[in-house]
Amino acid sequence: QTSMKNMERELVCPVCKEMYKQPLALPCTHNVCHVCASEVLLQHGHLCCDPTSEPTSPAATPSTRSPRLGRRSVPKPDRLDRLLKSGFGTYPGRKRGAVHPQTVSFPCPACQRDVDLGERGLGSLFRNLTLERVVERYRQTINISAAIMCQFCKPPQLEATKGCTECKSSFCNECFKLYHPWGTQKAQHEPTPPTLTFRPKGLMCPEHKEEVTHYCKTCQRLVCQLCRVRRTHTSHKITPVLSAYQALREKLTKSLAYILSSQDTVQTQIAELEETVKHTEV
Questions:
Q1: How far is CA 228 from CA 180, 211, 240, 248, in A?
Q2: In this structure, is the dihedral angle defined by the CA atoms of residues 236, 202, 145 and 132, taken in order, positive or negative?
Q3: In this predicted structure, what is the pLDDT of residue 195?
């Protein structure tokens, strides 16, 4: 729990104190939300793009956008006029080379230094997609862990502490005991961490209780990772389960095709033999 809290602190924007949304990487290696950076520049008199416009990317889906974006307003027209008259940015009728180009200085809220962004301002910065994906995964982890409740408790539901792959359900401690009574076959079910998506349980090695991953052609049996390192399989031809499955399936398909193609011939021979039997009986 402590490590999760520490990680969450690393994923918080120093301006809005919320998790990063479309973080921009500053030259000083710190990060700041795209919207927050736009607002900071506007507060310092720099005209930049509309802070409510979001660049498109796989990480910026409607479900992950910050609720605070809807509360932020576009700068008022009179404020924009003041900024334009003061000589910042470009606008129709003004030539780019008419005035000495101005570099944009951004006060980093993390290191308290003025960072030079050049003429383009925020346009010169890159989105930190790696950080964005980390934030998204962290959000999903928090949402999933918070949503897993016992599926058998009477209201109010308790938080699930155990999962069962065979039952495909999540239980609290008491419900797990109740639905897996001692002395029954269900008592043999092994508890797993609670989850909302139960992956089908694979074939298990009877010797090591590990999931089988390979096939030993020499012994003609499935083996797990522990089986592979044993001396009994030294110099044996071992292949992944998928490769062995595809090879055996192809061989079986050919055998079935041969049998089906010979079916008419076999039926004809059976009919001839039945006629011979009747003739012999007569």
A1: 34, 12, 11, 20
A2: positive
A3: 75
Q: Please, are residues 48 and 121 in contact by the beta-carbon 8 Å criterion?
A: yes
Cβ 122 vs Cβ 143: under 8 Å: no
C-alpha–C-alpha distance, residues 189 and 261, integer Å: 46
- Provide the 10 A C-beta neighbour count for residue 6: 9
Q: What is the largest CA-CA distance in the chain?
A: 120
The 3-state DSSP class for residue 48 equals coil
Residue 112, helix vs strand vs coil: coil
Confidence of residue 58 (pLDDT cuts 50, 70, 90): very low
Predicted confidence (pLDDT) at residue 80 exceeds the cutoff of 70: no
Domain 201-281 is in which class? alpha beta
Average pLDDT, integer, range 139-144: 68
Q: Can you read off the two tokens belonging to residue 273?
A: 């033999």
Q: Taking the model in full, what pTM does it have?
A: 0.36
Between helices 241-261 and 263-281, what is the axis angle to 10°?
A: 50
3-state secondary structure of 12: strand
E-state strands within 172-262: 191-192, 214-216, 221-223, 238-240
- Report the DSSP beta bridge partners of residue 222: 215
Domain topology for 146-198: 30s Ribosomal Protein S14; Chain N (4.10.830)
CATH code linked to domain 1-47+102-145 = 3.30.40.10
The two three-digit tokens of residue 160, written as one number: 């699930």
d(CA 113, CA 109): 8
Give dist(CA 188, CA 138) in Å, integer.
34
